[in-house]
Amino acid sequence: MKRIILVFLFLSTTFIARSQSYIGFLSDNYSGVHAVISNPAQIVGTPYKLDINLIGASALLGNDYYGVNVFDALNDDYDINLEANKYPLADNRAGANVDVLGPAVMFNLNRNSSMALFTRGRSFGNVNNISGSTIEAIADSSTNDFSISEDDINGLGNGWLEFGVTYAHIILNKNQHVLKGGLTLKYLKGAGSAYAVGENVTLDYDSEGTDLGGGETTGSISSTGFLNYARFAEFDNENYNYDLPSGADGFGSDLGFVYEWRPNYLNNDLDIDNPKNKQSSYKLKIGLSVTDIGYVDYKNGIRQGFNITKENVSEEDFDNAEDLGSFLEANYALTNSSRGYKIDLPTALHLNIDWMLKSKLFLNLNTDYSLMSKDRRTANFISNIVSLTPRYETKSFSFYLPLSVIDNSGFRMGAGIRTGPFYIGSGSIISALTSSNNKEADIYAGFKIGVFDKDKSDKDADGIIDKKDDCPNVAGPVENNGCPWGDKDGDAVLDNVDACPDEFGPEENNGCPWEDTDGDGVPDKDDKCKFDVGTVANMGCPEAEVTEAVQKELNDYARVILFNFGNAEIKAESTQTLLEIVKILNEFPSAKFTIEGHTDSIGSYEVNQNVSDERAKAVKAFLVNNGVDSSRLTAIGYGERKPIATNMYKAGRAKNRRVEINLVK
């Protein structure tokens, strides 16, 4: 009995179902018809004209109780109960998932639509809510007796075949933005199923509890609680010959959308026949889908409920029973019985984000989330997963390195390749080979044939096939027959948007020169007097002339500028005088002036010359610092060379010590 329960609980359900088949490979833009597995919208706009899958299989296995070293587990004398790490929980879970993609084909209907036809075989097994104490009790090798107590334990096994058709279409194509949608409809043929649900179950097994007489004993089973047991047939009967169940079928569907951002895409019309650039042209791709909506209806299935409260049931009765159903009927009270039940598909939500880092290098983020409650007793379900997969991708070869965090299994690292028609990989191979605490493993492999349209190459990757491209070696838009737009006038505004392609003009005026109505060199947009000839300095308006009266006024101010004795430092009391000079100069923004420094003859010639130079420069600096354009001013010192009065007398020398500001004519 102990051996039988161990086999039932562990050997047949040692693994937990993984949420995604073909991990890594499905992120590949060259996965072709396999895209129907995760998102039906992916089959349109692929590099393929035709893609045929001959056979592919993915097996996904794991559990959350045992953690093992793969190399140790391969030894013949390996004892999992003694050597494995154990993680007992109140609700340990286990399961298995096998996914076989049989003959399948994907093909393009036209530039914007694709279809796929596929066959697929799938099987799931889930066991839920087994307490760690139950597993420890059964696995205890020190005694053959054991006791278990479970509030709610359930398990499900289900296999089915799928015959599917997928249609995908480009819903929106606006320059850099492409939106695709896809729908899959599936006919489902049940291949077999069974589930058991125990409520408030206790079980005591005494390996020698039943006396057979003559000194022989056998085990006895005492139990309490309720058990619901459903199956498509008495498949565990040794006389049962397997055949596909009659009246076991159903329908399912998948729905998906894909958005692509193509910042460098120049063609307004998506050309799905181009095998070279259609998939690598996007910078960012986001896919969202819901898969496996539906159920398999086992119309002829048997569903029974039993009150299993009974003491000392002989193990010999169990061993001699034709099947489990017969044993339960013979030994326990039947509480309900009916025909027919439904097994739900593992409905899941998938979010996929693919980023092209650079040519041939991609980074993929994928999230799979179960929409089916793990407490639903007639449902298959997946484990939630988040995967980050860097990949190198070309037409003939791809390499993937998936990094995943999986519900109940933790972090996993895998690897996969696609080379020519072959693909093989695993989402956990690296972790399995490097860790002593493996709780799950998976592997996939297959063979497919992809057909590209070799007559429609696109060397410059601008979305226009070479035979229709006037510039096949240089990328250009379809509006210009595949050639880049020119710039005849050299104003950096391309001819296709240049309103004046033969005249140089700024971008802000659409490539046209600014108009200048009065022809004074100041464009009308800046000309304050666009109908009167003016100067640039006066914003296009005419300037007043510097009259003799203005000149005299300037020098009347200039001559009273005072400096400290013997140097060029301007006295503070001259500040207002200089500001008045600034006002006058700004009234004539185009006029140029010289600032002249003069001294008397007292002192040496060289000293007087230096002082006059420095004083002229000091005045210029003040004027410039207060808003006068320096290009209009020239500072020069004349020393004692240009007296305007005699230096023999004090009054004359005072007149000679002066600054003059004179118009340059």
Task: Describe this structure as you would to a colleague.
It is elongated and about 160 Å long. The relative contact order is 0.11. The protein is about 15% helix and about 40% strand. The N and C termini lie far apart (about 120 Å). Strand 6 (about 145-175) and strand 7 (about 175-215) form a beta hairpin. With about 675 residues, it is mainly beta. The strands form three sheets. The protein has a 19-stranded antiparallel beta sheet that branches.
Structural class: mainly beta
Give the number of DSSP strands.
24
How many helices does DSSP assign? 11
Give the termini distance in whole angstroms: 122 Å
Strand content: 35-45%
Radius of gyration: 45 Å
Question: Portion of residues in helices?
Answer: 10-25%
Biggest β-sheet strands, sense, barrel: 19 strands, antiparallel
Overall average residue pLDDT: 85
Morphology call: elongated
Q: Based on the structure, what is the oligomeric state of the protein chains?
A: single chain
| Poorly predicted spans | 1-19, 266-280
Characteristic terms for this protein:
665 residues, mainly beta, 19-stranded antiparallel β-sheet, 3-stranded mixed β-sheet, 11 helices, elongated, disordered N terminus
Quick recap:
This protein is mainly beta and about 675 residues long. About 15% of the residues lie in helices and about 40% in strands. It has a 19-stranded antiparallel β-sheet that branches. A three-stranded mixed β-sheet has the order 23-22-24. Strands 2-3 form a two-stranded antiparallel sheet.
